[in-house]
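Table S2 (text version). Query chain:
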Amino acid sequence: MITLELAQRLRAAGLPWSPASGDRFVIDGRDMDEHVFVVSELTIDVHEGPGGRVLRFNGTTEWALDSVEADDVVWLPHEGQLRAALGRAFARLEPVGDGWAVQLADGHREVDVDAERAYARALLTRLLGA
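Corresponding structure-token output:
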């Protein structure tokens, strides 16, 4: 899983998110950073409200949380979503030592301890135009 810091950097760089079933997210800034939530029709669903998208919590009384604005959470995209966001810029993924490297079509290469983090770093580089 990518780190919260990487996810925050992707968000700041403009990575768009349309919440969908299976998406992971963290509620940032409410002392809940260590809890990863997953959008699921059974417990957390996406609702289009007058003020924008809202993530509604169903049957989660232990959190005393009814809903949270989508803008108040940080999406933790998974490997497939990161690769899809890279699109044609992605060239290959390869193991390197104890980690993984993502090679972009322009020759840029990002290495990290796991594939998702390497994809996230490559996408961040692409979004920032570096």
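Notes on Table S2: The first strand starts at residue 24 and ends at 27. The mean pLDDT is 89.
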